[in-house]
């Protein structure tokens, strides 16, 4: 009797194997094996069904559940293949001691090879009762060890260790291994191709490897069910060889991938398996290099990707073999002319760090000229020579536009549209393109051209065909084709290269980050506390990151009127008269310290607020690469770290803090940079702040994110639930009503650092609890009943940064599923405003309830940012309606299950019109709300949009997610604390001024971001601008010091305050404005060379 087996849903590499096994089963055993796609019905003659584990781990249990729901499955047994790990409980763990025949089928299908499929087929005949012959143990027909990919070059420049999988070889699908090896051989590189774990290579072979090229699409060691990232890391460290892990489209075709010119790129499951998990062992270069042929189903390499990959290997080997004196290094810094921010980076003294690096490279034997001092280096790079105004970036070279066009080729026409015909209008004299920077022997320090310097930034940002400018493209192509760099280093967090248009992940040759950087080995000096944006640099610019330390923390302390008030309060409260009338001198002192209303007449409240100011941790100054903290500088970080260890036993707690102190007081960042620039391996490290994530130290390692399928974590779910309840309570306290709808800002950086607290907050507001499977994958959720929840649900509008969208696709998809499940519930309107709003909006918009329930929004695929910050910084807006329109246009794209950035602008406008409050987590004590422009860009942007749509401003709240305690407060309160502890605090200002040009730039940036928050939310009190003018610009001593170091930044600060007054954002004293006008006139003269400094 013939046994009929249905292989249901098997795709990708299994198809070729099924064909070979089917032939043998039919020929030798009279067994019929057929394949049926998951979306087709099963034939009634099926005796046994095999179900392949889903490519997406989150779908595994659901596939089996769907199979079980079919009536047909009451008869045939079901066995699940676990070639691709799923959430199903059988996992890839230890098999049972005496498995049943059904269980033995599943064990055989764990790895899909011809021999194992034949074995599973014979077992299936036994289970179906069509034979009584037991086929015995599972055969091992997976090829392992050295695999012959042809003879290498006679005189190789080095060796590449290629890691392959025996599964493809067993299926007869190994042509790509030969193609890759041949490409390397043509470039003079010898190869050793190894199937299975490269740890098993003979030592004499393993230690000759210069570069590891992992073609498995997963980790170098372990398997899909049990990735052994620690072993992969150890292998790369032992051999000091970089680990390159390009992406194979095992279940996708090259034609489909090529047909997607600028959207998502890879689907979420591929991002997790092929990119996120390999990054945990320090893998880089996640380029798509092959996919399935649509006709033959064979893996077929992409010629351009293979060539680029082979070149990257060859150039890395050349880097390792070259004498330091011969290596040519490009170092790229960031910033803009005119506003004094050239060479700025998050929490880093760029010029001091550059000087330290140049000195170290000279010591290592590089051909490099090192300026005598940091000040001399600064003068060289920002233009005017010693004693000049430092108002423009130095010119390094000129490149004839016609020569540039020959290199760029057909892609020049893509730039002509948005930027004007070659050579454009930025950094050009009409004939040549100007390259900015300076040369120091074989090391060039170049300045990345700005991206948005056009007459109409709004038009550029909203364009679907956005590109870099000719100037931007010319800079990178000049480094490659004229200077001929051997290695590229981006210096500090962060530039614009990685945010250039193109696919989000799995980039192709025509995507701008790839087009501009090509095959050059690329490293990126990145702050340890920003794994979100750092991950974008890894994935889109093929960079290996090297982390640097954040600055030391200290208590903000008290000063001036605040200190005076504290003294009076101490005397009053210690005199025993605290219960009596408040002395007028205290009220007057409180007013001088900018406390108003009832707060000014409440000594206890004043004292609490002063203590909050005094104890707030602030970053002192900037970090210099290679410089460890002194012992006295570690105290506040250790104290903050101790708050996270409250539940840890004393011996362990003491050991953790001692280890943290030791790591803060040691620094190997320069060692790591030297090793990276010489072609060595940089081991991986999790991202985070020192106090909360001590395991992010030591620095000098390759920053990575987390596997998105593990988000949100159990601790994040618990904290997220508490924060959600605090947010609801804060709204009730402030406004006397329950918030029906909240717009929450979700970033990648804080969700990665906290394990997904922001996402967990969104789930909690909905009344939904994420649920992790037995393998730790968060793949489903549980909707809490109204009785269990104990309150109404909240309609949550989630506005995502592009980083969150790209780096955490699975939890974003799960959140979207939760939103739609809640919207479909049959509950009273007052208990489920999401469902009520979706029904009402569907009727008003004449659309479906499913579309009206869209609640997850971000920028279009391959696009980043809201554009609001660009408008504010350029001054190119007339009123709040312009900022709102920019936000709504940029962010009107739906994300989640199958959305992939679809246009949803009309839905976004509708749902934001019903929002009661906006909310965001503040992820870092070191940076804080006004430290970067992204807070007013996202939180400010959505608040501005809601204000325009509603006609009045929503409530705005923030939570300090970096703190151990759960907290929620108003944005206005947060901006008051922010200003008192940093911008207006002499302790913070002096810490910045110690860094000269770079420090003044940071003061300017914080004032501009404060202005941006006022422009978008109106939550900055007028006294903040009063004191900023008084303390920073009208104080002649402070202004003179800043002006000597960075006059362009001082001029920018002056003009920004004048703009605030002109726009009605600040009700300034007329005398103050007159004095600011005089300062602006004087500074204009300095910058134009008319007046002396």
From TrEMBL:
It comes from the Bacteria. InterPro entries: CobN/Mg_chltase. Keywords: Ligase. It is an enzyme of class 6 (ligase). Residues 654-1072 form the CobN/magnesium chelatase domain. GO terms for molecular function: cobaltochelatase activity. Its EC number is 6.6.1.2. This is Cobaltochelatase subunit CobN.
């Amino acid at each position: 009797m013939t046994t009929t087996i249905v292989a249901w849903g098997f795709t990708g590499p299994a198809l070729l194997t099924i064909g070979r096994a089917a032939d043998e089963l039919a020929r030798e055993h009279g067994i019929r094996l057929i394949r049926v796609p998951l979306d087709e019905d099963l034939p009634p003659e099926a005796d046994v069904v095999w179900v392949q584990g889903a490519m997406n781990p989150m779908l595994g249990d659901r596939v089996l559940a769907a199979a079980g729901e079919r009536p047909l499955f009451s008869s045939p047994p079901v066995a699940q293949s676990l070639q691709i790990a799923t959430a199903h409980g059988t996992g890839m763990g230890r098999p049972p001691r005496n498995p049943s025949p059904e269980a033995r089928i599943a064990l055989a299908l764990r790895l899909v090879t011809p021999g194992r499929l034949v074995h599973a087929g014979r077992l299936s005949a036994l289970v179906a009762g069509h034979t009584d012959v037991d086929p015995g143990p599972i055969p091992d027909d997976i090829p392992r060890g050295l695999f012959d990919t042809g003879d290498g070059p006679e005189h190789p420049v080095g060796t590449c260790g290629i890691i392959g999988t025996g599964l493809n070889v067993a299926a007869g699908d190994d042509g790509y291994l030969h193609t890759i090896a041949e490409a390397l051989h043509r470039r003079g590189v010898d190869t050793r191709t190894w199937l299975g774990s490269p740890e098993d290579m003979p030592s004499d072979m393993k230690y000759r490897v210069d570069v590891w090229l992992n073609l498995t699409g997963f980790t170098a060691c372990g398997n899909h069910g049990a990735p052994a990232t620690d072993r992969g890391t150890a292998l790369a460290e032992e051999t000091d060889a970089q680990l390159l892990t390009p992406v194979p489209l095992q279940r996708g075709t090259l034609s489909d991938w090529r047909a997607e010119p600028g959207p998502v790129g890879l689907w979420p499951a591929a991002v997790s398996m092929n990119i996120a998990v390999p990054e945990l062992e320090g893998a880089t270069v996640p380029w798509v290099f092959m996919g399935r042929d649509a006709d033959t189903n064979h893996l077929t390499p992409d010629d351009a990707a293979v060539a680029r990959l082979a070149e990257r290997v060859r150039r890395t080997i050349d880097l390792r073999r070259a004498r330091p004196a011969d290596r040519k290094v490009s170092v790229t810094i960031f910033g803009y002319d005119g506003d004094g921010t050239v060479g700025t980076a998050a929490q880093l003294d760029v010029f001091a760090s550059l000087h330290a690096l140049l000195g170290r490279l000279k010591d290592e034997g590089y051909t490099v000229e090192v300026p005598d001092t940091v000040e001399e280096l600064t003068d060289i790079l920002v233009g005017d020579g010693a004693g000049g105004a430092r108002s423009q970036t130095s010119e390094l070279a000129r490149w004839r536009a016609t020569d540039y066009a020959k290199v760029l080729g057909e892609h020049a026409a893509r730039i002509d549209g948005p930027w004007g015909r070659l050579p454009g209008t930025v950094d050009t004299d009409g004939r040549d393109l100007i390259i900015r920077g300076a040369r120091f022997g074989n090391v060039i320090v170049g300045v990345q051209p700005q991206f948005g310097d056009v007459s109409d930034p709004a038009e550029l940002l909203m364009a679907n065909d956005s590109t870099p400018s000719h100037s931007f493209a010319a800079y990178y192509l000049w480094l490659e084709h004229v200077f001929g760099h051997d290695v590229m280093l981006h210096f500090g967090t962060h530039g614009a290269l990685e945010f250039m248009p193109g696919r989000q992940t799995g980039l192709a040759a025509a995507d701008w980050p790839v087009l501009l950087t090509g095959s050059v080995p690329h490293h990126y000096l990145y702050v340890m506390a920003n794994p979100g944006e750092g991950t974008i640099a890894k994935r889109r610019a093929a960079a290996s990151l090297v982390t640097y330390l954040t600055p030391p923390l200290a208590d903000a302390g008290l000063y001036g009127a605040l200190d005076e008030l504290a003294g009076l309060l101490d005397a009053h409260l210690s005199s025993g008269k605290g219960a009596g009338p408040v002395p007028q001198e205290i009220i007057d002192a409180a007013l001088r310290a900018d406390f108003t209303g009832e707060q000014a007449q409440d000594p206890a409240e004043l004292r609490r607020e002063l203590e909050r100011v005094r104890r707030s941790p602030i970053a002192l100054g900037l970090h210099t690469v290679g410089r460890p903290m002194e012992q006295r500088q570690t105290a506040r970080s250790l104290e903050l770290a101790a708050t996270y260890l409250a539940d840890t036993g004393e011996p362990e707690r003491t050991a953790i803090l001692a280890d943290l102190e030791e790591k803060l007081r040691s620094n190997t960042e320069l060692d790591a940079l030297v090793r990276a620039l010489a072609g060595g391996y940089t081991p991986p490290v999790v991202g985070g702040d020192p106090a909360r994530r001590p395991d992010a130290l030591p620095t000098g390692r390759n920053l990575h994110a987390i596997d998105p399928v593990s988000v949100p974590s159990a601790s994040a779910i618990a904290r997220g639930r508490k924060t959600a309840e605090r947010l609801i309570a804060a709204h009730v306290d402030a406004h006397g009503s329950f918030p029906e709808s909240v717009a929450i800002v979700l970033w990648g950086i804080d969700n990665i650092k906290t394990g997904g607290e922001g996402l967990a907050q969104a789930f909690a507001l909905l009344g939904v609890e994420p649920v992790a499977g037995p393998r730790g994958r968060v793949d489903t959720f549980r909707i809490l009943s109204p009785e269990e929840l104990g309150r109404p649900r909240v309609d949550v509008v989630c506005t995502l940064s592009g980083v969150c969208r790209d780096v955490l696709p699975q939890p974003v998809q799960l959140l979207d599923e939760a939103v739609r499940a809640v919207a479909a519930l049959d509950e009273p309107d007052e208990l489920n405003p999401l469902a009520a709003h979706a029904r009402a909006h569907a009727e008003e918009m004449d659309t479906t309830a499913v579309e009206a329930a869209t609640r997850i929004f971000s920028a279009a695929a391959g696009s980043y940012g809201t554009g609001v910050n660009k408008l504010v910084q350029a001054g190119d807006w007339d009123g709040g309606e312009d900022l709102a329109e920019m936000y709504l246009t940029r962010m009107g794209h739906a994300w989640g299950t199958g959305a992939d950035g679809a246009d949803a602008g009309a839905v976004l406008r509708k749902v934001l019109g019903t929002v009661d409050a906006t909310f965001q987590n503040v992820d870092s004590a070191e940076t804080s709300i006004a430290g970067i422009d992204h807070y007013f860009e996202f939180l400010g942007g959505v608040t501005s949009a809601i204000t325009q749509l509603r006609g009045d401003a929503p409530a705005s709240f923030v939570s300090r997610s970096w703190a151990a305690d759960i907290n929620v407060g108003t944005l206005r309160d947060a901006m008051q604390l922010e200003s008192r502890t940093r911008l207006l605090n002499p302790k913070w200002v002096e810490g910045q001024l110690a860094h000269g040009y770079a420090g003044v730039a940071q003061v300017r940036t914080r004032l501009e971001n404060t202005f941006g928050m006022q422009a978008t939310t109106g939550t900055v009190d007028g006294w903040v601008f009063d004191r900023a003018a008084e303390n920073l610009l009208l104080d002649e001593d402070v202004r003179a010091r800043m002006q000597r170091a960075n006059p362009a930044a001082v001029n920018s600060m002056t003009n920004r305050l004048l703009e605030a007054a002109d726009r009605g954002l600040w009700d300034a004293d007329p005398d103050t404005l007159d004095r600011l006008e005089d300062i602006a006139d004087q500074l204009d003269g300095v910058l134009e060379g008319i007046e002396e400094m």
